[in-house]
Give the backbone structure.
Amino acid sequence: MTDVANAGDGENASAPATAKAAPKDPWALPDVSHLVVGVLGGTGDQGRGLAYRLARAGQRMILGSRAADRARTAAAELGHDVEGADNAECARRSDIVIVAVPWDGHAEILQSLRADLAGKLVVDCVNPLGFDKQGAYALAVPEGSAAQQTAVLLPESRVTAAFHHLSATLLQNPDIEEIDTDVMVLGDSRADTDIVQALAGRIPGVRGVYAGRLRNAHQVESLVANLISANRRYKAHAGLRITDV
Amino acid sequence: MTDVANAGDGENASAPATAKAAPKDPWALPDVSHLVVGVLGGTGDQGRGLAYRLARAGQRMILGSRAADRARTAAAELGHDVEGADNAECARRSDIVIVAVPWDGHAEILQSLRADLAGKLVVDCVNPLGFDKQGAYALAVPEGSAAQQTAVLLPESRVTAAFHHLSATLLQNPDIEEIDTDVMVLGDSRADTDIVQALAGRIPGVRGVYAGRLRNAHQVESLVANLISANRRYKAHAGLRITDV
């Protein structure tokens, strides 16, 4: 049942127009085309896919990796002026930093980059999953979710979560023009989630949709286990659309 | 990243046709039009909405409630030959039993109906959520999820989970012909999830999509917190579609 919140949200459509400002249009998103976007773990499938798609849309992108030479090699393969750097340089030179590292190593890498990521808009897209013979399943995270762990480890950064449900295969396929999916964006600052929604919307076919505060990131991250189950059953690259929005 | 599962799923498209049976069409679902469907907690918004929609589609429905007279009153209001009964009679007379009771009371009600629900196909649609000034959030469930709690409490029943993301407001609105959403269906028996997918598909506009085993129910249940956040931001009745499936 998804209707609970419409009761008591404090909006009163019959109030005089002068009594309070009109609610902000949730689709009025900022221009982010001038921002530099880094991808930590950028040599993995998800990181390369996101960097490729965003660079192709005209975003200035920097791939980050533990080893700068590996990042530069991967960046050169992507074209579209993508640069490569070690993770620390990638973080320092970027306005927005997407965290696409493996869950195993997530905490360690972020801890080591705390100073480099201070003040940055950090977008965690990591899905803490386990795998066994029955497929994928959600891992318990002591902080609640990967994104909340990031917020704990990076108190000077602006932490959001997004880009969990995009198929790395589709992102990387140059023959695919549009990706048919919404990106759920989570965070506690509307200014920051607006920026991330705008960034998601740079990818043709994709729409960034606000989907709640960081405390509700766990289910968005672990829903990837369900999409993997659907992929198996239907031989697909499943994504998600939010309807009526 | 949702692509992991396509590796190593054991299918081999180049194997001779005679070597093994063709994979079953995942959209070849059984005819469920003859089955009687009960709804425990059928006098709540979600229960009434589901019963109304399914009855309108021609399904024989029984509303269950703690008090038979309340169930009968609610059933009469819905029309479409919906019947009312106390929860135990509703369970006994139904082939499929949808659990739409409040989370607070979920375990107690199911424990009391264990014998009545033996052998039945049980569909849990309960979302364990808490609410505070910042909106909705997922509650921790000792068994993992409401659906897994049901499976523990009803060892003689066939437990599945579905119908979490349908707006009760839309379900109950007689002017709305179609509901634009997929229903994620979870369970460990393919025969049972196929039946529930077919049942979901009886509602115009709705498609039942397999979305994994019961151990992956928690994130599907608690994703309702995110849809509630989207509803607040966009003044909507959000649902979900799975793309590329």
